[in-house]
From TrEMBL, chains A, B:
<keyword id="KW-0378">Hydrolase</keyword>
<keyword id="KW-0521">NADP</keyword>
<dbReference type="GO" id="GO:0035999">
    <property type="term" value="P:tetrahydrofolate interconversion"/>
</dbReference>
<comment type="subunit">
    <text>Homodimer.</text>
</comment>
<keyword id="KW-0554">One-carbon metabolism</keyword>
<dbReference type="InterPro" id="IPR020631">
    <property type="entry name" value="THF_DH/CycHdrlase_NAD-bd_dom"/>
</dbReference>
<dbReference type="InterPro" id="IPR020867">
    <property type="entry name" value="THF_DH/CycHdrlase_CS"/>
</dbReference>
<dbReference type="Pfam" id="PF02882">
    <property type="entry name" value="THF_DHG_CYH_C"/>
</dbReference>
<dbReference type="InterPro" id="IPR000672">
    <property type="entry name" value="THF_DH/CycHdrlase"/>
</dbReference>
<keyword id="KW-0511">Multifunctional enzyme</keyword>
<dbReference type="GO" id="GO:0004477">
    <property type="term" value="F:methenyltetrahydrofolate cyclohydrolase activity"/>
</dbReference>
<dbReference type="InterPro" id="IPR046346">
    <property type="entry name" value="Aminoacid_DH-like_N_sf"/>
</dbReference>
<comment type="function">
    <text>Catalyzes the oxidation of 5,10-methylenetetrahydrofolate to 5,10-methenyltetrahydrofolate and then the hydrolysis of 5,10-methenyltetrahydrofolate to 10-formyltetrahydrofolate.</text>
</comment>
<feature type="domain" description="Tetrahydrofolate dehydrogenase/cyclohydrolase catalytic">
    <location>
        <begin position="72"/>
        <end position="187"/>
    </location>
</feature>
<comment type="pathway">
    <text>One-carbon metabolism; tetrahydrofolate interconversion.</text>
</comment>
<comment type="similarity">
    <text>Belongs to the tetrahydrofolate dehydrogenase/cyclohydrolase family.</text>
</comment>
<dbReference type="GO" id="GO:0004488">
    <property type="term" value="F:methylenetetrahydrofolate dehydrogenase (NADP+) activity"/>
</dbReference>
Amino acid sequence: MASMIFTDCSSSTTARLVLLPLSTNTIRHGVLQFRRLVSPKPSLPRFFTIHTSTSPSLITAAMSTETSAKVIDGKSVAKQIRDEITAEITQMKDAIGIVPGLAVILVGDRKDSATYVRNKKKACESVGINSYEVHLAEDSTEQEVLKYISGFNDDPSVHGILVQLPLPSHMNEQNILNAVSIEKDVDGFHPLNIGRLAMRGREPLFVPCTPKGCIELLHRYGVDIKGKRAVVIGRSNIVGMPVALLLQREDATISIVHSRTKNPEEVTRQADIIISAVGQPNMVRGSWIKPGAVIIDVGINPVEDAKSPRGYRLVGDVCYKEACKIASAVTPVPGGVGPMTIAMLLSNTLTSAKRRHNFQ
Amino acid sequence: MASMIFTDCSSSTTARLVLLPLSTNTIRHGVLQFRRLVSPKPSLPRFFTIHTSTSPSLITAAMSTETSAKVIDGKSVAKQIRDEITAEITQMKDAIGIVPGLAVILVGDRKDSATYVRNKKKACESVGINSYEVHLAEDSTEQEVLKYISGFNDDPSVHGILVQLPLPSHMNEQNILNAVSIEKDVDGFHPLNIGRLAMRGREPLFVPCTPKGCIELLHRYGVDIKGKRAVVIGRSNIVGMPVALLLQREDATISIVHSRTKNPEEVTRQADIIISAVGQPNMVRGSWIKPGAVIIDVGINPVEDAKSPRGYRLVGDVCYKEACKIASAVTPVPGGVGPMTIAMLLSNTLTSAKRRHNFQ
């Protein structure tokens, strides 16, 4: 499938932009897991094209060379949260002798999945969470995976269970994820959790990690959410939809932009807070941003870069260079939302252990 | 609690409007169940005030005496749906000898609740659904209610269970509603159903009746939803939130206006489709409406009316007179969404029976 998109946001703001469906990449824990690098050549639009109608004032702002936005440093916030978690875990161990445990099930030999699992394991070790890993062969049966889930569901030393996605194609992902006990669903993706997240007066057992990380960044940077216009770009089950529900719980007035939105630029430009999670490099240009808006960029997109030793570099959904001139605050990529996701996974695992053992 | 609101939308469009929290009334099956009539005297704003900034073109439209909007006739659509349900029930009975059954549990002596239950019973009879009613005394225990729910859960002749709200204050509503089997939750309010409604690629067992009725009206009147801007006013668990999720499933670009929204008029004016469910008489004025918008008005609000033999009349959230001049289509109150809610309840009960007996 030939794909495109602008890999460099220095191109004209009146260029044609194309919003591709989120499914072209897989997001897992806020990281867009990619199969191939996007090509810098534009292809035909799949859903819609946008001719940007940049307002004069915005052009002026975009053309100025000043950089005024505050950088929202996810790496440093995540470090702070991990320190807080470490302290709580030490305190719990001392008080009641309990150490939280996270089990991860990996099926098959995908290198990227193996890297994500290794990173989670390292993160657990760094804060004092016990990690348990099961690595099954690509040709394992669904029953084998279910057997391990059932074992972890019953194991009192395990407080969180993660099944690393994607699973091999012969397995039914929904069956497998539904088998994880809702009490240990630290991913927070169980429909019962999502339902509680959507409903006023109900509380989910766990809030999905990346959305929780986005809101935590806003909180820790003192961004007022109540009564603000918030636009979420993307409506995936794992980022866009739950982050919109969280923003609404915080009394923002939300709008959700997606691949069928006819005028995404115009809608986005109304936002005081923009959270983008579509996986399209540099899609959100300066002209999409209201001066002073706060931007949380969830996209982590590889684009070809001959100058990089790896042959590519990572960019967000938002054209960072342009955003810095117009927004009041923006997350960088990498170093923005990415580090928050694993921190929130550790936080959910700790929450689970505290709840299980009634430890405040 | 002294309350207000404009009972007559002939008042100036630059008047102060106040949006009260939804909780001042109780919505059940799309009907705002009211304790007292609202007083026509404006009181102090509780959340925010709006000074409308009507654009000249809108003022012109509002001042014209022409009425151009199509009336979305919920009564007639509901009749049509009930005829379709009757035909399907006859067919199912002839083919497999099964008749759908709906059980309703009423606790206490509220006259309005008794009326709603009676109306549901009558509606069931009219389409050939068996109805079962349990009427418990106000001082019944939670255990007694749970015992009946458990009995209906196990009864194969019952395909849907409704607990009429509100319950007496000594009962835990959430415990009682959670006891209804998700397979018989024809209200569609179980968090698991709401979660599935929110998630792409998942299907709820039942869609909540009033939201389903709103979308059905749009469908039957050939209103295109895909790619349209839709504004939902109100974020209740039973109307606002699920109807927003449904609109998003239909590829609308949704925005949700609520009591904390700073500029509800401005946000609403961007909508191609407005669905209002706040329970505030005549809150949405002509100046809130984009010319040509389609309006679904879920509010059913009693306002004092000395000329009426009952001393009051029912009006919607939307100033119907002004809407008729600006919108392309609008639901009246009464006779709009109201009749659709019970039709959708019958539809959900039929769906449940068909699923249980694998009847297509």
